[in-house]
Amino acid sequence: MHEIVTLQFGSQANYIGTHFWNTQESYFTYGKYEEESPVDHDICFRQGRGADGSDTYTPRTIIYDFKRNFGTLRRLNELYDVVEANGGDYAAQSLWQYADCILPHLRRNGTPSQHHNPPIAASEYQQALSAGLTPPRLTADRVRYWSDYNRVFMNPKSVVQIYETELNPGQTAFEDWTAGEELFQSLDREEDLFDRDVRTFVEECDQLQGLQILTSADDAWAGFSARYIDRLRDELGKLPVWVWASCRGMQGISAAAASRRAVNKAKSLVEVAQQASLYVPMHAVPSRLPTWAWLEPESAWSTAALQVAALETATLPTRLRTAAGGVGQSGTMDAMTTELDLHGEQRIAELGYQARESESSGAHVNGVTTDERLRAGQQDNSDTAADRAATCDLFPYEDDLSAQVFAQVECTRGKVFNDVEAGNTTGARTAQGVGRRVSRYSASLQFPMLDSYPAVFKFGSHDNSISAGKVAMRSNLQASGRVAGWAHALSAQARRHIEPEERETIGNALSEISEAYGKGGDSDEDWD
């Protein structure tokens, strides 16, 4: 067993994480007459004991967010609440554990008093799940919090609620890098976060494969992540740590907000990527969408769905059972990291993917049927214009599409893609004729369309209002020269707004990243 522990930092990350855990829950099979799932659930789920003594199975995850963003998700749920397990009055008997306290220690005339926010009503979707009924169709206006579409019970140790009182006075928006650093230092000073939150999950693993972190790259959670990973490295050494960093769009925001986001992304690229084994930035609102993709850019529920389809497909090999019976090819985080890092200094990867209807539909991509594409051999050249047009590119830098590719890891799922060559292949070539290393993993398991998932896929005559069914996918993680272009662009955007004492350090680091990916960085004069 090669377990993976997941950490989720902030609201953007938790929208993605909720989709991710819902998908993992859908892979469970029950009963002796059902075929065994190709996914090894012990990798991402842990066994435990509920309040009534029954066995539990909950995600190996730790969720950090402000209390206001958890919605109706409580630290203790039906599995762990002794009062609810015994049919007691939750509100009367355990209010002190769950109340939304604004000023819990305010004293009036020497008498302690508590002030509570009004309780948040459960969404219709959650009410239906609790009653065992078919949930109503979700829409963007019905999703208020990421917990509104959560289908998985969490262990109490997984839920870390942060109160606004932890922030510095006068801080309203959690956007500045330094605010994230200060929050981590404040929380870690009061109680060692690794010992309190992470150590139990790590030590109960038989053979820890690595940690994956869901976070954001352009707000204060990026600073929080940087300091948290420093702490992880002190404790866990060179254990693989994959960071999936979400980036919001720049449309409709002020110049000051755009500058702040650019500075945060530049610092995240330097500080987080330097400590991570693999750093994958993911644009929440890609500048160009393929014909099969659709989203509501203002809805985090919708944008996270487009991101998680790529993330979940790219990481699928790390959760598969050993290859047998055509189930698929398993891989480890360590092996996949090595396959991507061709030159020993490339920790930043682009992420993109393609999606098609189940093989029975004969889906069309740009007017060409899947079978015609396979016969033409187009699938072996990911640099063709048709292939780029059919790919949802999540990399937050749209230029240099023909940049040199050094290494890539391709994961396919579903017969539509797996009729191509399976296994690991080397010697593929880019459009420029330069050799690169390509590693391929395949699995028969397709991506499930759940009732908690928005309609972000359109195929042919279907607008994919489907709330059930499966989708074939091919994800592509690659290290290429586009990273150098992004680092150069970030330096131009951020250098005017970075504090003078940091300017030279950040500038030199971005230059080193540019050089590592095949381009020269900014000159010293640019940062003077």
From TrEMBL:
Region (Disordered): 509-528
Subcellular location: Mitochondrion
GO CC annotation terms, alphabetical: mitochondrion
Keywords associated with the record: Mitochondrion
Domain Misato Segment II tubulin-like: 2-130
The DML1/Misato tubulin domain, residue ranges: 135-320
Pfam families given in the database record: Misat_Tub_SegII, Tubulin_3
Any one Gene Ontology BP term: mitochondrion organization
UniProt similarity note: Belongs to the misato family.
Protein name: Tubulin nucleotide-binding domain-like protein
Organism listed in the record: Carpinus fangiana
Biological classification of the source: Eukaryota, Viridiplantae, Streptophyta, Embryophyta, Tracheophyta
